[in-house]
Design brief:
The complex is a heterodimer.
Chain A: E1 5-16, E2 19-30, E3 34-38, H1 45-52, E4 60-65, E5 68-69, H2 75-82, E6 85-88, H3 100-111, H4 116-129, H5 145-157, E7 163-167, H6 175-192, E8 195-200, H7 203-209, E9 212-217, E10 220-226, H8 227-231, H9 236-242, H10 253-261
Parallel strand pairs in A: 3-8, 3-9, 6-7, 7-8
Antiparallel strand pairs in A: 1-2, 1-4, 4-5, 9-10
Helix pairs in contact in A: 3-4, 3-5, 4-5
Chain B: H1 2-39, H2 49-60, H3 64-87, H4 95-133, H5 136-143, H6 147-185, H7 190-200, H8 203-229, H9 234-264
The chains are: A alpha/beta, B mainly alpha.
């Protein structure tokens, strides 16, 4: 079967004011694969994710999701495209004023004309998938951290998206729960044949779930390759990241002095 | 000295730019909310009647008790002051005219507006601000739900429907407050009070109050929502937006009222 890219990012440049955050990013995600975007704090991975989700305006470049350039779509076309995309946010971002069940039902309520009972059954099925059966009447504030993430995942997959984004699945979770979540991600991909983009800085989780890994560092892509290739990379920064070595950066004395005494 | 002056000027410039930016944002928000109310269905993103009624309960119906109390007291207060002042001229019986006009044109819409602003502007800013901080707004966007359509349009519609209704209620209760005080103090029977009040009032007086209440409704919705959306960081940001939205909404209401009164009472 010919594999076609579901995500193609070309020459993406992102600026906040004068500061350039992402420099000429190019990478692609194939259908059915799990791409992990890895990088330290401040590497630009959150910014990249925001732009992949169409939540930011890039300075230049194109982002094609499922074949459509989201930097050029009208808001109406964007809504249509979004029905095929699921997102699970870092903190879950469940709507606090609704029950877990209503949260999962919301995309169906808004985008389909299904009758309420069908919607309820579909949402319960998705809650079964993430092992939260029977929790639909609880409020998000009554759930534990791991349950919130799984509920958010249920909401993300309720429309059976072709493309799923997952921001920091293991952040703030204990190792057991986070390993369970990794298993769940793998099962979902196999069962529903989704393509996934997972943003994480957890090495263990990244190696376990990834087909390919994209390593971001200070707004540049260092590498976008298979797990084995990334592990075997000779790049010093990648090895620093993999071996948790602190960065040994050269200090430029002139620039240091200029920073300290600037604008006085 | 020279540097201080330059700093002062540039600070003033920044405040002016921020002010213009915010005003633009608020009017864009108004245009967008109205767009979704009228054309949402055509874009397959209708503003749901259920959401409008739920908001109407929260911002309108639940505000009824405090508005009853406040307006009843205001009507009585106007009667007290009116009788005391008019007694100097021996014209106590003319108090009805003063109460009716000031209540319908001024106090009922103003008090209803201020109380609803206090309850609603803060609640809306806090709700939207919290949603902003916890990425719930982003979640709405990626699900394909326009946050303005989902959060602001129902609120705006609910306020435009309920605030005029609350103002009508406020009119009656304030007049009742005045009437009861008058019947106690100068022995003017309540039915006579209302007869005279209705004889003195023209529909233009009531309309003036109702038109004001529509403008107040839009002000409350937009000030609350825009402050909520502008929250950038953390719980402190939400707190600041909440305070700011109440203060601004009430100040705007009073300023708008002044302008309206000046224009409509000439």
């Amino acid at each position: 079967m010919e594999r076609t890219p579901v995500i193609e990012v070309e020459n993406l440049v992102v600026r906040y004011g004068q500061r350039e955050i992402l420099h000429n990013i190019n990478f692609s995600v194939e259908a059915g694969e799990i791409m992990v975007i890895m990088g330290g704090s401040g590497s630009g991975k959150s910014t990249l994710l925001r732009h992949l989700l169409g939540l930011g305006r890039p300075a230049s470049g194109s982002i094609r999701l499922l074949g459509q350039d989201i930097t050029r779509l009208s808001s109406r076309q964007m809504v249509e495209l979004r029905k095929n995309i699921g997102v699970s946010f870092q903190g879950g971002a469940l709507f606090n004023s609704m029950t877990v069940g209503e949260n999962v039902e919301l995309p169906l309520v808004e985008h389909t004309k299904l009758d309420p009972n069908t919607i309820r059954i579909i949402s319960r099925m998705k809650l079964e998938v993430v092992n939260l059966a029977g929790f639909e009447n609880l409020m998000p504030s009554e759930l534990s951290g791991g349950m919130v993430k799984r509920a958010a995942l249920a909401r993300a997959i309720v429309m059976d998206p072709k493309l799923l984004f997952f921001d920091e699945p293991s952040a703030g979770l204990d190792p057991v729960v986070s390993a369970e979540l990794d298993e769940l991600i793998l099962r979902l991909r196999d069962a529903m044949n989704m393509s996934m983009v997972v943003v994480t800085h957890e090495l263990e989780s990244a190696f376990k779930i990834a087909d390919r890994i994209t390593v971001l560092d200070q707004g540049h892509i260092l590498m976008s390759d298979t797990v084995a290739a990334v592990r075997g990379s000779a790049n010093e920064r990648i090895q620093n990241l993999l071996n948790r070595r602190p960065r040994a950066e050269q200090v430029d004395p002139e620039a240091y002095l200029a920073r300290l005494t600037g604008e006085i | 000295m020279h540097k201080k002056f330059a700093d002062g000027v540039s600070a003033l410039g920044r405040i002016a730019v921020a002010g213009v930016e915010e005003a633009g944002y608020v009017f864009a928000l108004l245009a967008e909310s109205l767009y979704w109310i009228f054309f949402g269905a055509w874009q397959k993103q209708p503003v749901r009647l259920r959401a409008v009624f739920a908001e109407g309960m929260a911002v309108g119906v639940r505000a009824v008790p405090i508005i009853l109390i406040a307006c009843f007291a205001t009507g009585a207060m106007l009667a007290i002051q009116g009788i005391n002042t008019l007694r100097m001229f021996g014209a106590e019986s003319q108090v009805v005219l003063g109460i009716s006009l000031s209540v319908t044109r001024e106090f009922a819409p103003l008090i209803a507006g201020i109380f609803v602003a206090g309850r609603t502007a803060s609640a809306v800013a806090a709700r939207i601000g919290t949603m902003q901080v916890s990425q719930e707004i982003d979640a709405l966007l990626v699900i394909g739900i326009n946050p303005v359509r989902y959060l602001v349009s129902p609120l705006l519609a609910a306020l435009l429907l309920t605030l005029p209704a609350l103002t009508v209620l406020a009119n009656f209760v304030a007049l009742l407050g005045g009437a009861l005080y008058c019947s106690l103090m100068i022995g003017l029977p309540v039915p006579i009070f209302f007869d005279r009040a209705f004889a003195a009032l023209e529909s233009a007086d009531i309309m003036q109050g109702l038109i004001k209440s529509l403008v107040f409704a839009a002000t409350i919705a937009l000030v609350g929502a825009s402050n909520g959306f502008m929250v950038k960081a953390g719980a402190e940001g939400v707190g600041r937006a909440t305070t700011r939205s109440v203060v601004l909404a009430i100040v705007y209401i009073i300023l708008i009222d002044t302008v309206f009164t000046y224009l409509l009472s000439r």
